[in-house]
Amino acid sequence: MNISIIGATGYSGVELIRLLKSHPEAKIESLFASSQAGNELTNVFPHLTNIAQFPLEAIDIEKTAEWVFLATPSGVSGKLVPSLLEAGRKVIDISGDFRLPQETYQKWYGKETAEESLRQKAVYALPEWFSEQIKGAQLVANPGCYPTAASLGLAPALPYIDPNSIIIDAKSGVSGAGRSVGLGTHFGEVNENINAYKVGKHQHTPEIEQTLTRIGGKETIISFTPHLVPMTRGILCTMYATITEEVNFQELYQSTYEGKPFVRVRPAGSYPKTKEVLGSNYCDIAVHVDPRTNRLVVLSVIDNVVKGASGQAVQNMNLMAGLEETAGLEFSPVYP
Ligand SMILES: NC(=O)C1=CN([C@@H]2O[C@H](COP(=O)(O)OP(=O)(O)OC[C@H]3O[C@@H](n4cnc5c(N)ncnc54)[C@H](OP(=O)(O)O)[C@@H]3O)[C@@H](O)[C@H]2O)C=CC1
Ligand SMILES: CC(=O)N[C@@H](CCC(=O)OP(=O)(O)O)C(=O)O
């Protein structure tokens, strides 16, 4: 499979290069960037010396290979995808441009995206829940990082909780904000610090609601508060919901995710840590029942750049191509 990456010099782009270099069926053919076009990949990322030698090209649809990953900031793929589809490419979009209905996207991202008729061609690609739709798709919208951790963590419980009681308290490392320099991710601002941001207005709120509504079959409105924590990679979601029907949640989660290679339901009473999934495509989940408050507490951890972006994108490529879902992704987390 010949592959192009657009946005190859960002954190998800460079993670795609790492994963695809050791994928048994994939061959990276070309890399595209924006401000770095004209430069060499190893000038931007010296850690890839003798591993990946590529020029960084200015975006040119004609020069793209059959499989195209878009790892560009929001607002870019909405403009590129029409020509990519016309050229017959298979497209995996890591950005948020094709995840939401056009109007909802414009409201929450404050940007334009593709026409709704085109947007509807995209399959929302959370593989553990929508694999049948992903197989054979030409365009997939890779889920966001927080929506991946939150949706995988809450989905099995939906028939047994009040969908409008859900509270998601999430923490992310700074790589979630991308590689470009900004005051919010400056060392002096992040180190020895923790802060909430975008309370009540984070762009992943409607995406999580859309996914839970679709899986649970009931209109779901959530409270979602993300926090920035002083680490590089990783997301922990601590999620609360009122229980409406008593079931054995541990057994429910284990049976739901049986045969799903990248979701590991941890033993009852566990406290998964972000380092236990670092650099891997796993999402580790633990469920706790608090009988005093009648609440379910779910803990879910991922590496935001792998299961939250590029690893899940490769998992989706595997499904689209009819390969083993795990191809190129069977490695252990890095520890410590
Ligand atoms: N980081 C994460 O954990 C996750 C990110 N995402 C999403 O993935 C996408 C990429 O994120 P991330 O890798 O963090 O971003 P980065 O900011 O690290 O990288 C952005 C990439 O896009 C290129 N780029 C910048 N502006 C433009 C433009 N106007 N047109 C074309 N290309 C452009 C940059 O090229 P150059 O360097 O040459 O300027 C760079 O290669 C975003 O939409 C993000 O929201 C989704 C899930 C998780
Ligand atoms: C820590 C941090 O800043 N994370 C980013 C993650 C967003 C992202 O990846 O953007 P998409 O909307 O394209 O999915 C944020 O909260 O905005």
From TrEMBL:
PROSITE patterns in the cross-refs: ARGC
Subcellular locations according to the entry: Cytoplasm
Main location: cytoplasm
Superkingdom assignment: Bacteria
Gene3D superfamilies xref list: Dihydrodipicolinate Reductase, domain 2, NAD(P)-binding Rossmann-like Domain
Catalytic machinery residues: 145
Catalytic activity: N-acetyl-L-glutamate 5-semialdehyde + phosphate + NADP(+) = N-acetyl-L-glutamyl 5-phosphate + NADPH + H(+)
EC number: 1.2.1.38
Domain Semialdehyde dehydrogenase NAD-binding: 2-137
Family affiliation: Belongs to the NAGSA dehydrogenase family. Type 1 subfamily.
HAMAP family assigned to the protein according to its UniProt record, in alphabetical order: ArgC_type1
NCBIfam families, A to Z: argC
Its job: Catalyzes the NADPH-dependent reduction of N-acetyl-5-glutamyl phosphate to yield N-acetyl-L-glutamate 5-semialdehyde.
The name this protein goes by in its record: N-acetyl-gamma-glutamyl-phosphate reductase
